[in-house]
Design a protein that fits this description.
Blueprint lengths: L4 E2 L1 H8 L3 H10 L4 E4 L2 E5 H10 L2 H4 L4 H41 L21 H6 L2
Antiparallel strand pairs: 1-3, 2-3
Helix pairs in contact: 1-2
């Protein structure tokens, strides 16, 4: 099969990449290319043959492992949402029980004045004791 040469811009358009992406792949050596008179030509037949063997899933960027990972993350997300809902329901129940308990506690009244111990007499300041006032 004859190899089709394309400029970087044309190769980017045909491969669905940006021109910078094509240049980086050429620099890394992952795209077959030739240099002639200072210009880079990408050899598309070799690249397109490889691209045709790739399934539609990988063209979209999803592999079976990615799909499994997404499903696992969705499952964990649903579990965490349910746990959060249960925790919020539990907090509401705790608030309700606390309010009911507080409603049953009688108001605290000050103790009767006759049985209250008297505060000790304060001692005069040192300078009043010295001066005698």
């Amino acid at each position: 099969m004859a190899e089709t040469r394309a400029t970087v811009a044309e190769a980017a358009r045909r491969l669905g990449l940006t021109e910078d992406g094509v240049r980086k792949r050429v620099r890394r050596g992952s795209l077959p290319h030739v240099r002639e008179q200072g210009r880079i030509y990408v050899l598309l037949d070799a690249v397109q043959d490889e691209a045709e063997t790739v399934s539609d899933e990988s063209k979209t960027g999803e592999t079976p492992a990615d799909t499994a990972l997404v499903e696992q993350l969705r499952s964990e997300n649903a579990y965490l949402r349910e746990a959060l809902r249960r925790a919020q329901d539990g907090e509401a129940e705790q608030r309700r029980l606390l309010a009911a308990t507080i409603g049953r506690v009688p108001e605290l009244a000050p103790p009767a004045s006759s049985s209250a111990p008297e505060a000790p007499a304060q001692r005069p300041a040192w300078w009043r004791r010295l001066v005698g006032r």
